[in-house]
Predict the 3D structure of the following.
Amino acid sequence: MKGWAVTLFAVGSLGLVLALSRGAKVAPLPSGDILLLGDSLSVGKGTLGGNLASLLESDGRTVLVNALGGRSAASFIRGSGPKEPNGKGAGQLQEAIDAGVKSAVIVLGTNDLAGLAIGNPLDQTLKPFQKIVDQLRSAGVEVYGIGAPHYQERPKFWPYENALKEGLRDIYGVDHFIDAGPLTENYKMHAGGKAAKGFAERLYAALTGKE
């Protein structure tokens, strides 16, 4: 895809069944290519998103990873400044749609959570997520959301975690949303190595039902 820092991964035929904290099951991912849209937690193979894509690669699919450090849903939609050198989010999503992705996994929320902690309104924080989901779904793309991790070292985030989680669950739908908090297990922001790999393995298991 032109202008994208995109990493291609081959990821296998998945029949995804997601176990959520409420006991609901997430709808199976359709066959075909996947867009993984993320922030710094997905930049590079050793990150959370990179490890997750590599695990999915072992199942034989193609994953298009579009990830940038500092990205929030709002900065992605605006598409301006150094955080979004590839233009407005709508254009980037259209490139993925034109490339033929059949599903998208949105791994955003950390920078949105940070924004809530400094006083950004919840409704304004959630609107860009809705725009992302609406554009993709209007093109027939199945959209799945992974909520923000729980950061034990960032107590200022804690009062806002539940509101963001519930808002995202409403946007993605209970059968298309994974609450990452219970899967975090002391994951620290930007952790790599075993921490990122372990978190990715727990998300993969939640997504696929595989250990």
